[in-house]
Structure formats: structure tokens, C-alpha cells
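From the methods appendix. Each design record in this collection lists the discretized structure first, followed by the designed amino acid sequence. Records were kept in a plain field format so they could be parsed without special tools. The example shown here is representative of the layout used throughout.

RECORD:
C-ALPHA CELLS (224 positions):
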């Protein structure tokens, strides 16, 4: 069945499809909650018709996610407890951009070492996304890490809090794709990373971006 003609929705070239940075005028802004990781800001935004709307925004420092792939194309997952949803989730190593002036790639390298005791010789960008753009400024980037080796035993990070109980496993990429499609994995980094990497592999890896690629327009780390 074709698309309904009476709706007059044009077909456009995918090459021109790109999110764009836009800034509507703020009429008011106040911090209603200030936490140790993020704040909640109540903002009054001017609409194009002259009206206004009030939105509560989670002001988030951003994060990085690491898809570590070994030479046999196994993906590294870690099991971690997530209290807000009362779940133990299979996730990719990840962490906040909460170190002042730390570049995202450096943060990814640090997080891979801290959560998985691994270093990687080769890095590339797999995907970028906003985690919940209707209510949060959290931006996230997934890196592909290959050429894996262990952090020397005497230099390994001492994990604390929930991270003390991390459980690492390796899963063949194709089986990880199946786990996502069957709804057995629900962490956004796992879902996006696995499916994006599967697509990149199908395209001969040519769609991966350099590890030092700038964060695209509209995916900007917010100031705290």
C-alpha cells in the first residue's frame, strides 16, 4: 500500500537529512534541583506563534559508551545493577563526561580501563545520540574499540559502589544482534551500539568515523 497522497508528505534525499542546532528564546530559567551529577532546570520557552511553554530539563554533562570488539568479533558486555528501573542490565562499558576539560575520546579510554581492565589500539566513532531529547540534554557517543589488551595488573582501577559487582562476558556480534531484536537487551547503548555496528560491518566498515571526529552540530556538551 502506498503512502496516502492526500497528506502531501514529500520524499527527500537521505543525504540531506541532518539535525540542526536551533535556539528559541528563553523567557525564564531557574534551577529547581541541583544534584551531584546533573541539575533539573525549569525553563520557559517562547514558541514561534508568540506563546510560551514551560519545560523541566535535566541538564546533563553527557556520556561516552565503548563497544569493545575482539579479533573474533565478540562484543564485551558487563552486567550492572541499575536502581531506577530495578534491573541488572547487560551493558557496554560507559561513563559520564564529568571530568573538567576531558575530551570524549580520552574519557572513553579511561572508562574502558576502569570498567573492563582493557586498553585498545584502534578507536572509531560508531554513533551519536541524545538519550531522551524531550526532557534531557544528555548526549552520548559510542566508540568502537579494537586491538584489545589488558591493563597491567598493578595499574588496574579499584572499582567502587555498584561497579564492584560488574560481571564481564563476551558475546558474538551476530548473537548480540539477535538478543536486541528479540527484546532481551534494553540498555540504549547496547541496543544502538550493537545495531549500528552490525550495519557498519555490513557496509564494509566504511561508515565508521575517525575517533577524533568533532561532535556534530546539535550534539553539544552542555555547560554546568
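DESIGN:
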Amino acid at each position: 500500500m502506498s503512502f496516502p497522497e492526500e497528506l502531501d508528505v514529500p520524499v527527500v534525499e537521505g543525504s540531506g537529512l541532518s539535525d540542526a542546532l536551533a535556539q528559541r528564546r528563553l523567557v525564564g530559567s531557574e534551577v529547581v534541583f541541583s544534584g551531584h551529577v546533573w541539575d533539573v532546570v525549569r525553563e520557559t520557552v517562547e514558541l514561534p506563534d508568540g506563546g510560551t511553554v514551560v519545560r523541566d530539563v535535566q541538564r546533563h554533562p553527557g556520556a561516552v559508551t565503548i563497544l569493545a570488539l575482539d579479533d573474533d568479533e565478540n562484543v564485551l558486555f558487563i552486567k550492572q545493577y541499575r536502581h531506577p528501573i530495578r534491573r541488572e542490565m547487560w551493558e557496554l562499558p560507559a561513563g559520564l563526561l564529568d571530568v573538567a576539560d576531558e575530551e570524549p575520546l580520552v574519557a572513553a579510554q579511561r572508562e574502558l580501563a576502569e570498567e573492563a581492565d582493557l586498553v585498545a589500539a584502534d578507536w572509531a566513532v560508531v554513533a551519536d545520540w541524545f538519550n531522551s531529547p524531550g526532557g534531557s540534554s544528555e548526549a552520548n557517543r559510542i566508540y568502537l574499540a579494537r586491538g584489545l589488551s589488558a591493563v597491567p595488573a598493578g595499574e588496574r582501577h579499584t572499582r567502587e559502589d555498584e561497579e564492584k559487582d560488574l560481571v564481564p562476558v563476551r558475546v558474538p556480534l551476530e548473537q548480540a544482534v539477535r538478543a536486541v531484536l528479540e527484546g532481551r537487551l534494553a540498555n540504549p547503548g547496547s541496543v544502538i551500539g550493537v545495531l549500528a555496528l552490525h550495519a557498519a560491518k555490513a557496509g564494509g566498515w566504511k561508515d565508521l568515523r575517525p575517533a577524533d571526529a568533532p561532535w556534530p552540530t546539535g550534539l553539544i556538551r552542555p555547560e554546568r
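APPENDIX NOTE: The CA atoms of residues 38 and 200 lie 33 Å apart.
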